[in-house]
Amino acid sequence: MATSECDTSNIKKIRERFKAMDRDGDGLLNRDDITAALLQLGYDARGAERYANEFMKVMDKDGAGLVNYTEFVREYVRVSRFRAFKAIRDQFVNIDQNGDYTITKDELLSHLSIHLGSEFASEELDECFSQMDSDHNNIITFREFCEWFKLKNTMILQAIKKGIV
User: Fold this and answer.
1) Within its chain, how far is the Cα of 8 from the centroid?
2) How many Cα atoms occupy the beta-carbon half-sphere of 68 within 13 Å?
């Protein structure tokens, strides 16, 4: 799968979440929008209000009482990074079959074959590995693996700023 396909999917997911929370469709989230979304997620009224207040403190950078799409995306990506770190580390360890804390092309191929089947082309594997192996020494370190995920998140923010999505 090409990186751009994955990024487009993530951007659509973020936009859909924002739109679902934006009850009046004005492109801005207020405290009531956030509280309603939390209630739908199963929070009780007191918990929803408390978390909505915290949400506004963190996301409403200009203090206007409203969160625009860009503010939402910045915080969404930041929170996602914290949550994703453990998942990224676990994924890295799963791919690293010999436990040397590096990933070789063979280990990546083996992992992809097990989890995706053999329906991907050699060129796709080479492209994926090359994107991750930033120093081109034919091994992927954990730092490179994390940087690859960071790059993908940065590309999402840049696309939003440029109005591509």
Assistant:
1) 11
2) 7
Intervals of the chain under pLDDT 50: 1-6, 165
Q: Which two tokens stand for residue 84?
A: 């994703």
| CB neighbour class for 145 (10 Å; exposed up to 12, middle 13-18, buried from 19) | buried
Rg (CA), the chain: 19
Closest CA relative to residue 22, chosen from 68, 61, 55, 80: 68
* Amino acid, res. 25: G
Tokens of 149: 């995920």
The dihedral of CA 27, 30, 35, 36: what is its sign?
Answer: negative
Residue 108 · residue 128 · CB < 8 Å:
yes
Classify 67 as helix, strand or coil: strand
* pLDDT digit string, tens, across residues 93-133: 999 999 999 999 999 888 888 877 766 667 888 888 998 99
Query: Dihedrals φ, ψ of 68, to 5°?
Result: -85, 175
